[in-house]
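Give me the fold.
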Amino acid sequence: MSMSLLLSRLATGIKQVRANGDFALSVKKSVHNISAAIFQNMEYKVVERGSPYSQDYRVYIYDNNGPISPLHDIPLVVDANKKIFNMVVEIPRWTNAKMEITMKEILNPIKQDIKKGKPRFVANCFPHKGYIWNYGALPQTWENPEHLDDGTGCKGDNDPIDVIEIGYRVCKRGEVIPVKIIGTIALIDEGETDWKLIAINVNDPLADQINDVSDVEKHFPGLLKASVEWFKIYKIPDGKPENQFAFNGEAKNAQFALKIVDEVHKFWKSLVNKEVEANGISCVNTSIEGSEFKVTQAEAQEVVNKTPPLGAAHDIDTTVDKWHFVHLK
């Protein structure tokens, strides 16, 4: 949506409210709608390739010019003053397929994790069904596997930083949404620091009331406790031990979380600027000026063209729907 069209709609709204006298309320609503539209002004779309639930399935992200890397080409920051960030949704709420931005493939498409040669699905650990939030990552971030975190005592997990988005709307795979960071929990996953940022879509009806981790319990009672439990037990049905947390599973506040975001963004910069070893991570991008990894849109499109076209989804084993009753000691 162009700025001129946005301003035109605002002017129309002002004329309408002058007619009924409720000027202030309508202007407030119009400004909110314009703000939301600006957040979504950069249009991204999803292009699926291969067959869903197979090893060749890929989700590529496109902007208005063509294919891009969701890791490198989507800006981290939407609005620095309001501390609004872009989030790439990898896994919609209630789904089980373990999808993630792949670090080692050109353009870093979203693909399904593979376990023992088969696409991976997370177990339903009663009473949880699949993922209990929209799950994804912040672009232009990287948890450096050589950095020992002072707070957790463990090194990074070599991925972009994870986000759990708690708004009401179930998002779509590959969707890019503007979020507010309200806290974080520090999962220790197989000896690595795996931050889980807690966020809410800024267009959620409750977004204005959710500004810090303390607001989550007030407006979403039980969700923080359920989230920690989910991460503790979700690998147990696969024969793995209960996951551990730094800080005794306590959720840290927004200020703490924002410092972590700043840190992992700096790690990403060191990665794309070749200040550290990439160790197989693809830094190919279409937008970073001066980057030796930058490619043209035509070259990026050729990468997508070489992958299989979208095909029929493979059948999913019915065991994906099984309930697992896990009891923590």
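Residues 1-7, 13-41 have pLDDT under 50 and may be disordered.
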